[in-house]
Inverse folding.
């Protein structure tokens, strides 16, 4: 294709983005747009699937059948979100096997938050309330993203995330209205998960190599810092209702800004965890690699069945 032809395709593409049109899989897109979406959507999918691990540990330890059922439903949802997002990534011309290999080899990232251990039952509440709450903040913005399959996947995912966040908040409300020991367990949990939850939104905008271009392509409708600030503003009043203290001595309502001012994030901790040196990075990837290996027979059986079906349909069609 000549340079002139590419230039005109790029101009048509930019005009479509400017008109807020959705870009669909079979339509022309800049190679960098395609690659950026494979990067972000696949890492989003990896996060959903790895995110099942800290919670999976608590299914057999849930304090009641009702809590167990809600946790099971939430974890199953997360697996479904992962499959949805892997399918959205596949529309950009990458195979599921390549995506899984990128996760297992460490080439692809997943959300830093899932490299922290869930050590008490209160963590199941905090993960639902803070982690899914942060995910919702990010994902609601992604419902307006320019890539069609990604935007549409977000609609269903956001609906289910709302249940995740509410069931988490209800766990904490129960603990905070319980015995002093239960309330203390909830406070300990928020002390451990608050700052890693703020890190979920990514580095500061000034330190983000991807945000500027992603905003231009309307992949990101809000920046990392904008979403982080909205999350803090929304979450602090909820913590007040629980009677829990946010572990940030600099947290203070700024009447002029109409936002909460908050303390400095430990970006060294963030990048250490992103680079694989968090408390649970190795454990998480080992678990994913083992699950994929142990599940090979299921994939082989499903493929064999599909092939047999296909042959039958071909025979019938002849
Ligand atoms: N954890 C791990 N890596 C992170 C990260 C985090 N919290 N935040 C940023 N990074 C990585 C980025 O992937 C990027 O590395 P890469 O170029 O190799 O991919 C680098 O740090 C620089 O960050 P940028 O801000 O420039 O990168 P992005 O523009 O991609 O922004 C993001 C990061 C805000 C996480 C964006 O990718 C995004 O919105 N992703 C979709 C949402 C998502 O993945 N959420 C994860 C949680 S899903 C979840 O919680 C499930 C729920 O059900 C519990």
């Amino acid at each position: 294709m000549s340079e002139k032809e590419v230039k005109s395709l790029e101009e048509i593409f930019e005009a479509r983005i400017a008109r807020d049109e959705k870009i669909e899989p079979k339509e022309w897109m800049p190679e960098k747009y395609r690659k950026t979406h494979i990067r972000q959507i696949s890492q989003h999918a990896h996060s959903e699937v790895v995110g099942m691990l800290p919670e999976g540990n608590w299914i057999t330890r849930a304090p009641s059948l009702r809590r167990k059922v809600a946790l099971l439903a939430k974890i199953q949802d997360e697996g479904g979100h992962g499959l949805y997002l892997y399918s959205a990534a596949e529309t950009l011309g990458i195979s599921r096997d390549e995506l899984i290999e990128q996760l297992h080899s460490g080439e692809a990232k997943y959300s830093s938050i899932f490299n922290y251990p869930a050590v008490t039952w209160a963590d199941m509440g905090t993960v639902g309330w803070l982690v899914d709450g942060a995910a919702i903040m990010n994902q609601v913005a992604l419902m307006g993203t320019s890539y069609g399959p990604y935007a549409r996947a977000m609609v269903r995912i956001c609906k289910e995330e709302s249940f995740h966040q509410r069931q988490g908040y209800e766990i904490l409300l129960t603990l905070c209205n319980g015995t002093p020991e239960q309330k203390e367990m909830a406070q300990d949990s928020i002390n451990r998960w608050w700052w890693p939850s703020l890190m979920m939104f990514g580095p500061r905008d000034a330190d983000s190599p991807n945000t500027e271009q992603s905003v231009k392509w309307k992949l990101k409708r809000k920046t990392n810092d904008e979403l982080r600030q909205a999350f803090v503003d929304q979450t602090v009043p909820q913590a007040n209702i629980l009677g829990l203290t946010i572990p940030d001595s600099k947290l203070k309502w700024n009447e002029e800004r109409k936002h909460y001012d908050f303390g400095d994030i430990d970006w060294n901790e963030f990048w250490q965890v992103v680079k694989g040196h968090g408390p649970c990075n190795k454990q998480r990837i080992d678990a994913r690699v083992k699950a994929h290996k142990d599940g090979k027979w299921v994939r082989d059986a499903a493929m064999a069945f599909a092939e047999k079906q296909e042959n039958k349909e071909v025979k019938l069609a002849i």
